[in-house]
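During the second half of the funding period, the structural biology subgroup turned its attention to how the target accommodates small molecules. The most pressing case was nicotinamide-adenine-dinucleotide, which had performed well in the primary screen but for which no bound structure existed. We therefore specified the complex as follows and requested a full 3D prediction, including the ligand pose.
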Amino acid sequence: MAFRSAKPLQVESFLSMAKRVIGIIMNGVTGRMGASQHLARSIVPIREQGGIDIGGGEKLYPEPFLIGRSHSKLEALAAEFGISRFSTSLDEALADPEYRIYFDAQTTAAREGSVRRAILAGKNIYCEKPVAASLEGALALVRLAREHNIKTGVVQDKLFLPGIRKLKSLVDNGFFGRILSVRGEFGYWVFEGDWQRAQRPSWNYKKELDGGIILDMFSHWRYLFDHTIARVRTVGCIGATQIPERVDEQGRPYQATADDMAFATFELEGGIIAQMNASWTTRVYRDDLLTLQVDGTLGSAVAGLRHCKTQHRVNTPRPVWNPDIESMHDYRRDWQDVPDNSTWDNAFRVEWEMFLRHVATDSPFPYDLADGARGVQLAEFALQSWHERRWVDVPDLKLD
Ligand SMILES: NC(=O)c1ccc[n+]([C@@H]2O[C@H](COP(=O)([O-])OP(=O)(O)OC[C@H]3O[C@@H](n4cnc5c(N)ncnc54)[C@H](O)[C@@H]3O)[C@@H](O)[C@H]2O)c1
């Protein structure tokens, strides 16, 4: 009975909280990530629930100002989600002091320049990864943000996926003993665009537009390793452009100039060996689009987007190599699920809430522009490793 009466009381107290509006300029919301993950699945549901509780009897309510290149697309989004302000002029939004946060989910090539303008306008920054197309550009943004004393954040959504959170709790609880190795598989077939429409935008396959799987994905690998397993120390990478011609959104053939697959190995702090295979030219035969296997002296785990399975040393079978007979052993049955002891919101939304609290209340937020720059550093060094055909050390960033 006590449990039943608790919820309405909580709802009532939430409704009676003072509402603090926080304006967010959202640039690139007509794109895939901007529209779906950031607007429709993060900011809109936060608004629908009335905001987020930031303590002290206050709730924070996001008020977006949509920015993009197409007036008609913006108008349609604004109407769909009940948003009053939108414009094709970034300057108009940056000039409005009511909007304290600038968010960027534009193409990678467009990000650095717009983020720089927003910092100069004194806005707090939250943006997609990679934060810039080059390490030099990313570091310039970090320094400029420090000079202007603003708060910054970078999308590191994979950290907030249920499967990765379960994996992190295993690491934090010492489940693995000494971690020996990490093996990740990411990717799926991206259609060429001729007989079936491509699932990803054509700029992804053009080097000259800052496309490429290494620049796109290695930011993810960096924060996943650094924050979940151990800090990245060295990278060795080989990439390729395996599909040289694709067909764009208008049905026109184009030369694919960017890497569409990359296999990389890493040394992590503590002598851990890691490998990540990323490909848009592979067909999926695994439990998820991203899987990470971690092997340790005391146990192993395999994490996907939502699930995580473990095998402790005491449950480890003794495989026998004999290809002359049909194997009767179901290896997957030797693994146990980490239970869903919590409910999990959309990963992008969880990070948005964390960043909004950080801006409003100074609560901690470790995923800042400098952390984003580390992702760009790893991508740049992986490209260097591939082109120079050698391993490259990944030193701590010099931020001053
Ligand atoms: N966090 C993640 O998991 C994740 C996943 C995919 C993409 N991303 C990142 O998000 C960003 C956007 O990716 P997307 O897949 O949504 O791209 P998209 O092509 O679907 O959207 C790009 C957006 O940028 C705008 N834009 C501005 N200038 C442009 C230009 N010159 N050419 C084309 N578009 C321009 C478009 O109008 C659109 O709103 C990229 O930086 C990408 O790396 C992150």
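Two results from this model are relevant to the next phase. Residues 1-7 have pLDDT under 50 and may be disordered. The two ends are 58 Å apart (CA to CA).
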